[in-house]
Amino acid sequence: MANYPGASYFGSDYGVNYSDGNYDEFDWKNPYSQNTQINSVPVDSFREMEAVMRQINENWDFMNSENFNPVSLALQLLDDSSLGKDYKAFQQTKASLDRALQFIVNDYYHGFNSSIGTFGGVMKNIGDSQERVREMKSQLKACKEALSSKRSDLLQLWFRSQQYKEMIRILDLIEDFKGAPEKLEGLLKEKHYLTASNLLLESTRMLEKKEMIGIGALSDLRRYFKGQQSPLHELLIEELHNHLYLKSSYCDSRWVKYTKDQKELPSPLMEWNSGRDNRKMNFIGAKNKKNLYVNTGSSGGIMSPRSPKPFITIKDEDDEIITENLDINPETDSFYYMEILIESLAVLKRLPQALETITQRIPIELYQLVDKTVAEVEERNANSFVMLATKKYDMTDVFSLESSENDAQLEALRDLLWTLYSKLDAILQGHRFILDVVERINKRPEFNKSIGSQIKLYPFSEIWKPIQSEVRTLLRDYITDDERNSASIDAPDAILQDLMKEKKLRDSSKQLFKFGDADLNSYAAFDQQYEIDIKMALQKSLPETFSKAPDERQLSVFVIDRFANTNITAGHRLVVKPDAFNVSVLFKPTSAFLDKVKTMLPPSDHRSSEDFTTFLDDFVSNVFLPQIGDKIFELFHKATSEADAFQEDPNYKSYTTLPVVKSAASLMIIVERLCVMLQTMASHKEEFSKMIISLLTRYYVKCFEQYQAIVAKNSGEADSGGTGNHQGISATWVQQDQLSEILGQYPYLDDDTVKNRRKRKMLCDKETKVEMHLKKKRYIRTGELIMENKKMAALGALYHSLKWFVAKIWELRGKGSNPANLPATKADDATKMDDGKLAKINRRWSQFGEINPNHGPKDDEKKKDEDQNTGGLLLTDEMTNRFDALLATFQQLAEQCLFTLRVELRCHIMHFIDLAMREGNYQLDYEAYEPDPHVLILNTDMVKFEESISSNLPLKEHRFVFEGLDALMEHVLVSNATFLRNLNSNGITKMSRNILALQQNLKNIVDIPGEISLDKARRYYELYNIGPANMLAQIREQGAVFTFDEYKAMLEIMHKIDPSSEVQQLTATNRRDSPSANRKLYNEHLLELNELMLDFL
User: Fold this and answer.
1) Compositional bias of type Basic and acidic residues: which residue ranges (predicted)?
2) Is the model's pTM score more than 0.70?
3) Taking the CA atoms of the chain, what radius of gyration do you get in angstroms?
4) What is the distance between the alpha carbons of residues 990 and 410, in angstroms, rounded to a whole number?
5) Of 119, 378, 868, 913, whose CB count within 10 A is highest?
6) What is residue 89's predicted lDDT score, i.e. its pLDDT?
7) 172 φ/ψ angles, rounded to the nearest 5 degrees
8) Where are the alpha helices (H) located in 480-571, listed in sequence order?
9) Rounded to whole angstroms, how far apart are CA atoms 67 and 542?
10) Which spans in 683-736 are helix H?
11) Given this model, what pLDDT does residue 970 score?
12) Three-class SS string for 78-115?
């Protein structure tokens, strides 16, 4: 086949492959033959036609021209020269066009056939219509001719038809009136009150028309509808109060029960301002009736299916009277339901009376609401109340504040407060909603015209005053029991007797009597009869609605005294006992509630939002602060004045590892409670700061008195010496500036480094010298020492208690002085004391590592929770320096206790070693196998001393008390050698046994036995055995080990010289040489010793 333009295109479209030599010859004469491949594949007819038209436009475009001449084309096709046209290409294009058209015909011939039939039908219908139009035209002409003729009988027929129509209309109205009572009862039963009110009002209006007055059969209906208005008015008011004061179960989603660890006042309803834009009302209906559909979609949060619709006030521009959707239960949306009730009252023209009734019933309804809430809380916490009822509760027991029973009481009180305030919040929202709806109704001209004037709205303050009174009563009842006692059952008689006895004017702030104290049984019959009468009247008027009395509806008799003091309300049943410390639970929910109240002020109320919190500030200043002050100091007096106030707290292991006295633990509980109150009442931090400082000052006096009682002399030694000093020798020495300065520099709390060990040794030597200077060679009497081990233990317990107390107080101080917005370094600087001396003391005590050293991650989490529950100590700038100075005095007293223990033990050592060397016998004819009895007593005394303080002092303080005793013993043993006049070799052996016994006993007591050594004292007394000449030779060869006075004392012992006598008197039994010769020899040795010691200076 010859090549032609577009051959490849047609080949690719029809499935013919021209790229290789193996293909079948295309049959151009029969292009639709079934032997070709073109019918073997589905073909798109429009694509085929599009391809053919493209080929014609490309190769045969001149044939589309209007001036096309087919004769010239035919001649060109017959011309085989190069000037002619390709005849085969023309035939191929023609075949392709035929084939494309054939495809289109095959695809759409059914449509062509049906369109032909349809066209025939349309033409037939058009013909029929033309025929009917012609017939109608002829009939209209006939009617026109008939109407143009005049007939007198038709007028009478028209008048008669009008009469029949009027009769039918009246009969229809009577039929409607006949079914109206049943329809009204059905609407009331389903609580569609707005439709029922419209039906009642419209029926009454229709029955009062002239044409209905003459119908006697309607008189009963007329009386029935007139009689239903007052019961319906009462019913609407009751239903409104049921939803306004949350009596209906459909209102449960408007308030929230207390949840554990609740911190704020939640509300399932949306805020006022945000709700204005989210609640949309679609009015659907005809001219006069519109069904109200509420769009419950909310942009914030997912509401549960039982939750009410989002809260909002109706916009001012929505001044159309709404109707109900009779297919839904109106109570499911409480606010929508209350609006329906208000609209119903407006329809009945009873809205002013309803508002007055609402105002009058506010105090009664609030009182019942609080009582109901109290009962609910008691039911939820029944197990806790049973547990509390079986245990005796002491109001003055400080530790009861931290007990689990007290925590259960506080949890029940939190439950009451948060639940009650959530309900009060919902009630205020309901009142605000009613005010807005009434204000919107009040702007309708037709409504004002119907009642003759605008409705006077009750002010928001009329709602707030009873609520404020209930809140004040609640705070008073749970903080102070004074008013509670006066309002108890037995109180009225007592108050009347007091009034008659004292003949004073009655205090108007206290109740003389209350109806709750009356005998309720005597009025039970009257109440029951009253309730029966009310039920019968309601059932008679609305039998369907009041066939069953609602469970939540309780009929009670109330006496409303409009001239009584509204600030005083009868108390409610208490869920917990009143206590001033309850304010930490009361204040936060109350503040959250007052903050909510400020947001609900209507625009028409010109009162400042601060007016709603004034009563709370007055209550805190005039009632709470005096009450908590009395309570605090009553607890303080009980905690510090009892016999066991400074005894070990049996529960100390719960907060520290070492014993703490009960008074310190009790006072710490009080201070922590005050700090919790201070967190919730930060605006009164100055009063709380003064209260805490006063407590600490009084406790310091108590601790100082306890310290003086411990260190006081025995009664027989109190006045000896005529100095007037009643303190023991250790307490007297500790107060000396020289000794207190040395002890104050002692690094007993620092790490055990080489530098600190050297410093401690140096300070020990200085301390020994000062103590020996204070002793002045005199004998320490037994009466000047603390010999009772209980006093030692008490002194150690007092030290650790003060140290623990200061550390805990400092921790609270750090919390209060570490604001969250300050960097850590600046916060630390803020807690430092300004005075240099106080800062120095603070550095030693700033970190207290012995409170509970064995703690783990769980303890850290527990401590974190306690820190969150325990507030910091917030102080004013004026109180900060006073508090820090007071804290420093506690630290000084604690250190004085510790220093007294150390000095007391050292005085015991001086006392017994003095006795051992002054009264002991060291000139023995036999070898001694036992140490001196006074040394044994000293060892026993040291062991008991260690046992008495080991359980009360931390490790570092314990080490500090016993550190340096070996150096003191060596010094006293050597320096007291002047008291030994008669000494021989057996006496030296006894002295060695004394030294060995002291050394071994001290090693058994101290923490580091390897550092204990009395070799210096032992070597000193061994000089006696080598004689004067060898001693001087040893000094000459090895150098001086002891001082000149100590060598001189040894020479006096060797030569039996008594330095206190001018004339030497020697006994005959002990004398070997003449006195003059012994004195001469002593002087020679002393002169030589003097020369040797000068060489070593």
Assistant:
1) 856-867
2) no
3) 56
4) 71
5) 913
6) 86
7) -65, -40
8) 482-486, 491-502, 524-541
9) 100
10) 685-711, 729-734
11) 92
12) HCCCCCCCCHHHHHHHHHHHHHHHHHHHHHHHHHHHHH
